[in-house]
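TL;DR need structure tokens for one chain.
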Amino acid sequence: MLLPRSRKKNKGQQSSVPFERRLLLSILATGLPCAIFAFILLWINPYALDHKIEGTVFFLLLWLGMSFAARNRVINSVRVLSSVVSSLKEDDFSFRASRAVAGDALGDLAIEINNLARALESERLGTMEAESLLRKVLAEAEGVIFAFSLDGKLKLFNRAAATFLGKREEGLVNQDANELGIGDLLEGPSSRTISRISNGIEKRWIVRRTHFRQNGIRHHLIMLSEASEALRAEERLAWQRMVRVLSHEINNSLAPIKSVTRTLGRILSQTELPERAHRDFDLGLNVIGTRAEALNRFLQSYAQLSKLPPPTRRVVSLKNLIERVIGLESRVDIAVLTVSDLSINVDPDQLEQVIINLTKNATEAYLAKQANGKPVTNDRPAVSVSWASAGNDLELWIRDRGIGLLDASNLFVPFYTTKETGTGIGLVLCRQIIEAHGGRLGIQNRTDTPGCEVQIKIPNCIASATAQESNIVKKHS
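>> reply
TL;DR here they are.
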């Protein structure tokens, strides 16, 4: 049973008499003239004394009883209406005022309160449905959405936001933005592009920041949409256009240089010159010809970036592919740490090229560490390959115990290389192949030991998995 709301006095109100008592006094005062008139009529007539006393008591009880009954009827109606209003305040819409009869003051008031209750109930239901729809939309939205209070506390987020943070959804509410590592998102322009490295993979995000009010309180609304693939595609097109222009212009110059070099070589062979001069001319022409050929090969290697065909997929054995590729490397032992086989639907030629490039880089990093005289323990393989399936997704790792990454920002920049004989397209080509399969390629330093770790993830490529009973396969030099 709901209790009536406590009554509060208005400022300046001097009366301390409760409403119930004032109502009773008003009803008694209303019936007082009639009671006095009845008493006078009773006592002026020649009735017996005992009859007069009985009549007086009867009229007195009747007057008081009717007054209290009227008072209780009004008070009970007001208390019912008060209870209904109190339940509305507590968002409980199950109560309605009884005796809602049109035509009298309390009945009209009860009708209006009942109508108000139904309107509030309908509005509350609509609000709950809207909030439920909003939360479902937020949960399924691919973009990252955060809502922070003005003091930097997280109030609302979606599933993609938890994935972006790399944390479980439970316990994120009311955490500080700086503790979550995204305090910088609350500052700066309303629209900008940022970069974040996650699992060795650099992703670019378009950040939009605005404000909204909830319950009258202002909040920050931050929305992030991943732009890595779109920006990388534009970047790749820019490199391809530049390579085509450079190739065209340099080839136009290389052709006459090689032709003139050959012509001068024939003339030199038929010309009588002092031995020293002949040797110098011959050396100079050889240098020009050799460098022209090297530059031509250099341009041809870069042409691969603009001529890579789309993958031609077919189902192959991952284990057989790996064993075939690592058989090409004879400088170090490469260990296959996974004993199960997977049937994968990929372009085997392109995936082989990726694994060849990556195992070659891992081997050279290990050999460079040995050449620098740094100690290398023998309790772990120099280079290892392992894989696993996550649903229908393939995850493949290539790990080494080399010198590790010194500068990860230039890993996928075409033309950039730290090797004396490198061309700077190996990793770019690998990433382009993996992304053509719809996957991701990431590189980072290992946390368990010095060295580097490459992670490849190709979605929706698993055809079947077959357990193998063979032990760890090692290829020896």
